[in-house]
């Protein structure tokens, strides 16, 4: 039996329930002993913690695809790390693993909260939380299965330089589409054009969005990959082509969905355009993650796919990290390096 | 050469452009000579003229799937009739035909505006404008291809006793679904239950819609066949199951779409439920009408599918007919019998 009694586990816990975007004030820290491993359990030392838009929904007390994090519990999050002790037959010390391990230094797992074993040891561990993690896998399945882009299609992406959006734009390009990115601020627009290969990019903050969409999408929009909802989406929807597909992947531009906010009714437009809006949740594709990761890793190795990370150093950065994401201050996939 | 000079053609023409639902005041009559048939043309004597919700869109000056009817032109509509003269190799006197022949006694056609040749001479001619026409074909393809009902699914239909809705409910039942109809008034609710075999029916006018939906859809909604938009749809959307399909087939409850009216934003809900909303236009299935008509006719002959018609007598009824439809006063597929 392994003894973990000498290890202390630092955790970021939910202190109070936010309405809308969680702020630093909603989180606190504690230190608890790492428990003994039971039979069938293994211990993960987290190296990187993930920060993503969905975490707002995980702490809000509104209908969602998973129950809210209880007050006092460790903040739910994805993390990537290394197995440092194991009483589980399938896991051994030194194995790399990604999973729903929470904002904490150590996580005990029986395998149920594992997303996947990280096999691509030639690539950086942190990539498992972004381009080779749920962001990349989301982009891959949501674009290809729901968006169904065809060569020559115009694909518009909101939060185009983000962890998911940047991957969507590049996959669409690999599939022979024309890509138009929408991002906030000149730096992100520049990143869209220079790093992520968009054919055009629009700064929704500084420009007249309708005019810019007309200029950059002269043949209309065949696929709209929506990470924002709100006024950006309303403007893009106006330009849908007949048979267009709208992938609803995130709703970052709307702070509060309880009650449902008002917006332009889409029914008549969907009817006239015979267009489709469909929500996407990556967890529905869990059995197929391997196929996406393999393809994404190949594109990374061949240089057809690039990614950008924004790494915060240490636990002290965690409480403000989700708010920072919603303020749009990150310049790549937002991660916390465990100190 | 056939001479048609002795025939006078009575027409219902668009006199002025309505905003919203066209009323009697927007139409007028004229009588014009039937022109000589050119080579490749044939003359149809219309027996029944169709009245349908889409006609509102055809006269409004808003973006639609076809350009608006010009002022002074014969009102666009489907009609069923008989060929009474022909200089076209494929058509001969006595042939039955359905097509976009307009609100007029006679129509000259070169075949381009024909919907289909009516082969099922054992069934009433008028059925070609309803259950064996675009209403039935719409119900068939929109439900089966877009709604994708599975046995045991709960299928909710708005305007459930209407020409399309009644057919949707019965096809869903044939496919092994539980069907819940929403209609306006006790008579229509009764018709849903007694004639069209719905498992449950709700009167949206007299009841508390939310409570009634909760009562009649205890397992949520898998397919919502939406003919209305507006508050009825807003209530049904709240009850979508994960993976639900919303077929947008009509928007009868919203009078004016220019500018787009406001309503609850659906993006977050579609995301959480991984649900789909998709517009349907029957014209996209034109090449496959035959397959639907054949199946629908077989269901009619075997008594598994029933329909109800509401026949107005004579041209004088035409100007008010669309408004009557939107007032919900018809008790079946609304038709005008040519006098």
Task: Describe the overall structure.
- The structure is a homodimer of 339-residue chains.
- With 339 residues, the first copy, chain A, is of the alpha/beta class.
- Helices cover 24% and strands 27% of the residues of chain A.
- In chain A, strands 3, 4, 5, 6, 7, 15 and 16 form a 7-stranded mixed sheet that branches. Chain A has a 6-stranded parallel sheet with strand order 10-9-8-11-12-14, with helices on both faces. Chain A has a two-stranded antiparallel sheet with strand order 1-2.
- In chain A, α9 (321-326) links the parallel β15 (309-313) and β16 (333-337).
- The longest helix of chain A is centred in the middle third of the chain and has 14 residues, at 134-147.
- Chain A is globular, with a radius of gyration of 20 Å.
- The mean pLDDT of chain A is 95.
Keyphrases for this structure?
339 residues; alpha/beta; Rossmann fold; 2 domains; 7-stranded mixed sheet; 6-stranded parallel sheet; 24% helix; globular
What structural category characterises the helix and strand content of chain A? alpha/beta
> What oligomeric assembly is this protein in?
homodimer
Shape of chain A: globular
Total helical segments of chain A: 9
Task: State the share of residues found in helices of chain A, binned by percent.
Answer: 10-25%
The radius of gyration over CA of chain A amounts to 20 Å
State the CATH superfamily name of the largest domain in chain A.
Medium-chain alcohol dehydrogenases, catalytic domain
Strand content of chain A: 25-35%
**Which fold does the CATH topology of the largest domain in chain A refer to?**
Quinone Oxidoreductase, Chain A, domain 1
The tally of structural domains of chain A comes to 2
Quote the average pLDDT of chain A.
95
Unreliable residue runs of chain A: none
Distance between the termini of chain A: 27 Å
Helix and strand element order of chain A: EEEHEEEEHEHEHEHEHEEHEHEHE
Largest sheet entry of chain A: 7 strands, mixed
What is the number of beta strands of chain A?
A: 16
Largest interface: A-B, 36 and 36 residues
- Highest CATH level, the class of the largest domain in chain A: Alpha Beta
């Amino acid at each position: 039996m392994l003894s973990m009694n000498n290890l202390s586990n630092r955790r970021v816990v939910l202190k109070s329930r936010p309405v809308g975007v969680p702020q630093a004030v909603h989180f606190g820290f504690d230190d608890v002993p790492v428990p003994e491993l039971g039979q069938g359990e293994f211990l993960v030392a987290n190296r990187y913690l993930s920060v993503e838009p969905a975490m707002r929904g995980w702490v809000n007390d509104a209908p969602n695809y998973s129950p809210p994090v209880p007050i006092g519990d460790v903040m739910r999050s994805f993390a990537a790390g290394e197995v440092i002790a194991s009483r589980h037959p399938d896991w051994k010390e030194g194995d790399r693993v990604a999973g729903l391990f929470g904002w904490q230094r150590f996580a005990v797992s029986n395998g149920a909260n594992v997303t996947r074993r990280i096999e691509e040891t030639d690539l950086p561990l942190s990539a498992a939380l972004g381009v080779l993690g749920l962001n990349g896998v989301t982009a891959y399945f949501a674009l290809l299965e729901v968006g169904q882009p065809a060569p020559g299609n115009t694909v518009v992406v909101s939060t185009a330089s983000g962890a998911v959006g940047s991957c969507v734009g590049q996959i669409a390009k690999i599939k022979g589409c024309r890509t138009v990115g929408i991002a906030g601020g000149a730096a992100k627009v520049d990143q869209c054009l220079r790093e992520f290969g968009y054919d055009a990019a629009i700064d929704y903050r500084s420009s007249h969005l309708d005019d810019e969409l007309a200029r950059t999408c002269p043949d209309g929009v065949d696929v709209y990959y929506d990470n924002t909802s709100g006024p950006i989406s309303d403007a893009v929807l106006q330009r849908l082509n007949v048979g267009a597909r709208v992938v609803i992947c995130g709703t970052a531009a709307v702070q509060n969905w309880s009650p449902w906010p008002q917006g332009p009714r889409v029914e008549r437009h969907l009817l006239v355009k015979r267009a489709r809006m469909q929500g996407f949740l990556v967890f529905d594709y869990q059995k197929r993650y391997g196929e996406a990761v393999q393809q994404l890793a190949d594109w990374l190795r061949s240089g057809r796919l690039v990614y950008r990370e924004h790494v915060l150093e240490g636990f002290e950065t965690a409480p403000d990290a989700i708010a920072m994401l919603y303020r749009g201050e990150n310049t790549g996939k937002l991660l916390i390096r465990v100190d």
